Amino acid sequence: MIRLCDSRDDQAIFDIINDASQAYRGVIPEDRYHEPYMSEDELAQEIEDGVVFWGYEEDGRLVGVMGNQNKGDVALIRHAYVKSSHRQGGIGTKLLHHLMSLEDRPVLIGTWAAAVWAISFYEKNGFRRVSSAEKETLLRQYWNVPDRQIETSVVLCDGRWAENKNGL
Fold first, then answer.
1. CA 86 to CA 80: how far, in whole Å?
2. 2-167 fold
3. CB neighbours of residue 1 within 10 Å
4. Alpha helices of the chain — where are they, by DSSP H?
5. What are phi and psi for residue 159, nearest 5 degrees?
6. What pLDDT is recorded for position 160?
7. Which whole number is the average pLDDT over 53-78?
8. Three-state SS across 76-113?
């Protein structure tokens, strides 16, 4: 079952993100990986900055989370994680499709360039990578990330972005 998360879910969101992010260890640049991957304070800041988390629940427990963030003319998919014990079961796809059904504007996703599994997942779900120049512009416009993360990331867009980018 997919449901909107609230403050009672903060610990579960924190646990899922930090469990699933273990996949980044040794893959993303060493200077960008740390333990925990996202601290409780960082999670609280993301929520304060408008990231709304949705969760996938099995047997009364969250096993996957995905956030969306309203950025006016676009929506961002943020922090998409499935517990490592529940991967490859379609949970990420269900969450992504649910969040996409809530949007009527272009959707952008940023992820690590080295996270080929994540890029492949989004591409299988209809997203495409934007050019390197457009990536840098978008990351500076819609995200608040350091230059090093901009260097080592990609941005993917949905079909609405491709159709509307000239009008944004």
1. 13
2. Aminopeptidase (3.40.630)
3. 8
4. 10-20, 40-48, 91-101, 116-124, 132-142, 147-151, 159-164
5. -60, -30
6. 84
7. 97
8. EEEEEEECHHHCCCCHHHHHHHHHHHCCCCCEEEEEEC
Q: Is the dihedral of CA 113, 14, 137, 106 positive or negative?
A: positive
Residue 129: which H helix or E strand, with range?
strand 128-129
The gap between the terminal CA atoms of the chain, to the nearest Å, is 35
* CA nearest to 54, candidates 35, 23, 82: 82
- At 44, is the secondary structure helix, strand, or coil? helix
Check whether the bond before 29 is cis (ω within 30° of 0): no
Domain boundaries, the chain: 2-167
Confidence at 165, pLDDT banded by 50, 70, 90: low
152 has pLDDT over 90? yes
| The model scores a pTM over 0.85 | yes
pLDDT at 156 (0 to 100): 98
Q: Quick check: helix, strand or coil at residue 141?
A: helix
Rounded CA-CA distance 38/133 in Å is 28
Residue 168: band (very low, low, confident or very high) from pLDDT cuts 50, 70, 90: very low
How do residues 68-117 score in pLDDT, each as one tens digit? 999 999 999 999 999 999 998 999 999 999 999 999 999 999 999 999 99
Tokens of 83: 């517990």
